[in-house]
Amino acid sequence: MLSIQNLEARIDNKNILNGLNLNINPGEVHAIMGPNGSGKSTLANVLSGKNGYETKGLIKFNETDLNDLSTEERAQKGIFLAFQYPLEIPGVNTNIFLRTSLNAVRKAKGEKEIDTLTFLKLIKEKASELGIDEKFLSRQLNVGFSGGEKKKNEILQMKLLQPKLSILDETDSGLDIDALRIVADGVNSYKNKDNAFLIITHYQRLLDYIKPDFIHVLSNGKIAKTGGAELGIELEKTGYANIS
Amino acid sequence: MKTEDLKNTQEYKYGFTTDVENIRAPKGLSEETIKFISKIKKEPKWMLDWRLKAYNRLKVLKEPNWQKPKYPKINYQDLYYYSAPKSASEKPKSLDEIDPKILETYKKLGIPLVEQQRLNGIAVDAVFDSVSVATTFKEELTKKGIIFCSISEAIQKHPELVKKYLGSVIPLSDHYFATLNSAVFTDGSFVYIPPSTRCPMELSTYFRINASETGQFERTLIIADKGSYVSYLEGCTAPMRDENQLHAANVELVALDDAEIKYSTVQNWYPGDKNGVGGIYNFVTKRGACRGKNSKISWTQVETGSAITWKYPSCILQGDNSVGEFYSIAITNNFQKADTGTKMIHLGKNTKSKIISKGISAGNADNMYRGLVDIKNKASNSRNYTQCDSLLMGNKCGAHTVPYIKNNNATSTIEHEATTTKINEDQLYYCNQRGLDQEEAVSLIVNGFCKEVLQQLPMEFAVEAQKLVSISLEGSVG
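^ inputs. structure came back:
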């Protein structure tokens, strides 16, 4: 599904990624761990097409070269990024944002736009799966939301848009145990043989709930080590000091 | 049609002209022109005298020049002050008699006038250049004693009301453009709501400039008698031309005891092209008097068009406990300029005013909020709240906020809040990541920014206004 070969990325004349290789197949869950400043968030930004990076190397997503696509085209093709810091958009009702987003993705796929009533039914259903109060959907997007509410809202959007590749950028940071479980349940319930996850995290605790197939340790803009789920537990004990 | 023309047409879809035969006043500003206008409108002598008085006053007035947007000197002798389709010079008695070309024009503008297609629950007065060509739902309104007609018709049929109120809010000698309007005004709407009557539908006027080298001098007068309510909306468009055309309107509102007037404007005059060539000079005087106790006047404006917008819809809060509100969205793109805001003059006790202004500037445009809050010494326990927010897109545009605040009563309070922000790249990225393209993202964010104002508009128009906000900013972030 995703094939990254020798990816380099620079921002403000600083090299962040230095020849990163990664392959993700449908049905797989990959976790990226690594110390601060190792390039984890940059990888998420570059994959989603954020402006400002100079990149080199190949990123293929289902046979399409992602370098040719804009941010929105990547999103429409099924790349979803759950933001570490979801943005507040004052004056924009959450429901309207979600519907506009869903329709943009549907339109790009050549599907018909969803009408308001069908949408409201759908979103209520998805929200209740995540234990999100309906009232929350008529509030302004992320404005005055708690950290946990913002993260749940990201997972809600993921479940609504049904992406092929979901990138979770430190979705677990700032979550209490209950919220963490809800987020993890959201991911687990969406996971199937056709979609994949790239989970960026600092801590093992999220991986206690979402079992990864692979854990990669990022160091100096490269994958320094790859292992199975047990690698996370090992890292919890030893830290990153021995990996370079 | 060249590609460039085609592109422009998409950006300003009301830029077409209607080919009709016109009757015009002699070119230039003179007593002769004024007499021509008065005669063709079959006005009584008192009206002509009033106009001439204004004209004499105008001779000693100077054009104001304190505004921020500067413009080349207007040659007032090079304008036509009256231009009307020949077919409308004798006002058609029924819709069947209106020139089909004009009906087609309004249909294209989304304002169908013929009975079968009329907008539900909205009565429309259609003003084409210098004349009102049709007013819908007249009979229904008459049954309730409501008068909704062109000002020309009101001068003939309701002289007592016109004499009493015309010029009572904007005096004859107020300032240059207002006085010019008093001398040469051509058409506009007249509304009278009788005591204790709630107007059962939205009233609206649609102004269309069609002829070239013509100024439009609209005059509107709305009177809400004791305990009445009316919601009124005006819309405006004009063809695309290289010349700048002048629109100098006067709008007067009078609210008596316990009456309320809600006045909404969706202004979409031709803004000029991408390089700032052409477009309307929208120099307008709008003023409302809350003359009675507990009266309320609320202005809502969505200003997206015109090369220069220069206006301050104001409220004179005379009656005790009266309320004035001003909600504004002013969008300037390319080389458009706006100097707009409001004046809230507190005279009565316990008067309240609220100002919410949203200015959006893109391209090379310049956007100025200028507003006066003046609490006089007898206006005890009065309050004002002002919030001015500016949004900048790109780095060649400007936003300015100039509040004038005077408080002469120690028991009264004034609050002023202002913010200036640049459109946030991260917000755009977030929207893009959810599949929205750049234009959809801008539209969503800007509509969110304007929400407090948009939600003041009558429902039927709020959706249109939202679309207009988006269209006005197309191509501004790229």
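The first helix of chain B runs from residue 3 to 11. The CA atoms of residues 155 and 398 of chain B lie 44 Å apart.
thumbs up if we can close this ticket
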